[in-house]
Design brief:
Belongs to the prokaryotic/mitochondrial release factor family. By secondary structure, the chain is α+β, with helices and mostly antiparallel strands. The chain has 4 helices and 3 strands. It has a domain at 3-95: Double Stranded RNA Binding Domain (2-Layer Sandwich). The relative contact order is 0.15.
Length: 134
């Protein structure tokens, strides 16, 4: 994934925000919406596109567009920087291939400690019972 090419492919839209700002909110468009076309992107290889399609299927529209919004701050520029950072982070995290887990067995010492604590608990509980009268 080439982040610089990816950022140049993004399209931005400014919207009126509902966040902090009082009366200022009613007259400025500080919320930023970024849309990224997965299908038309040249920053990603076909393998990466396929991986994103499967893992982000709930976030991708039917046209193959990922849309994110940010209206946290009163500044349009800061919101734009935040939303770009979020999108790049989301794509990088999704494209990262998880290492396969190696199966391991508990050590002998761990098994012995577990069995010893089980015996101690059983002994404690058996001592709580009243003695049997025959």
């Amino acid at each position: 994934m080439n982040a610089e090419v990816l950022i140049s492919e993004l399209s931005f839209k400014a919207i009126r925000s509902s966040g902090p700002g009082g009366q200022h909110v009613n007259k400025t468009a500080s919320k930023v919406e970024v849309s990224f076309s997965l299908e038309n992107s040249e920053a990603l290889s076909e393998i990466e596109k396929e991986r994103l399609r499967t893992k982000l299927s709930t976030k991708i529209s039917s046209e193959g567009i990922i849309v994110l919004q940010c209206g946290e701050t009163r500044s349009q520029h800061r919101n734009k920087a935040i939303v770009i950072e979020r999108l790049v982070e989301l794509l990088q995290k999704t494209l990262k291939v998880a290492k396969p887990r190696k199966k391991t067995k508990p050590s002998k010492g761990a098994i012995e400690r577990r069995l010893k604590s089980k015996k101690e608990n059983a002994f404690k509980k058996s001592n709580r019972k009243p003695p049997k009268i025959e």
